[in-house]
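Support reply, case 0932

Customer input (verbatim):
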Amino acid sequence: MIASNRKNMLKLLKSNPYEFCEMDDEFRNDWELAYSVVSFDGGAYHCIGERLLDDKEIFLKAHETYTGNLRYSKLTGNREICIVSVRGRGSTLQDCIESFRDDYEIVSLAVEQDGFALAHASNRLKDNPTIVSISVNKSGRSFQFASNRLKRDKGFCLDQVMSNPNCLEFFDLSLINDVEILRAAFEKDKTSILSVSEKIDVTTLPKLPILGSFLNNFKLD
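Our regenerated output:
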């Protein structure tokens, strides 16, 4: 009878894994049932019982089909699990313990998967040129989370704008008006200039006639 009931329960859960959330703790803390549920749908991981939230095998099974479960788990201090998690979804860096957000390997994997994961890195790594370069290569707008020191570093910013000109709008104002940087951004992607058009000083435009002409034509259009 028990086996029959369990079989019917699994049949129900396979058709709707989220029914597991409504079951008694006795069932939600049953390892076999929990493992089966996350096998059906990794997104149902948050339904499993409290006692199983530190179980690596269940977490990894759920991760195969849903990569955003770290925040529900009790594994945020497990380095192996954090690495697996950020490889699948960089933004889960925010769910790792603080020391892991200052871990070069973990943060580099996170920003490689999602540039915006830089927002959750430690201040030390937001000031790391390699980490920020990986992030910008993935998403130019992630440069907003870089350190102020890097935003003022002309050589570094020139490299970044040549990699992904969408980072331009987050440079220090002095660099947004730098002719060399504006020229590099314009040559890489003309439209990147539009994001900073309101910040470009009128004294800068005569030094780059082609840029002034582009902005004037765009306004006319």
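We compared this against your earlier run and they match. Two observations from our side: The chain has a mean pLDDT of 93. Residues 13-75 form one domain. Please reopen the case if you see a mismatch on your end.
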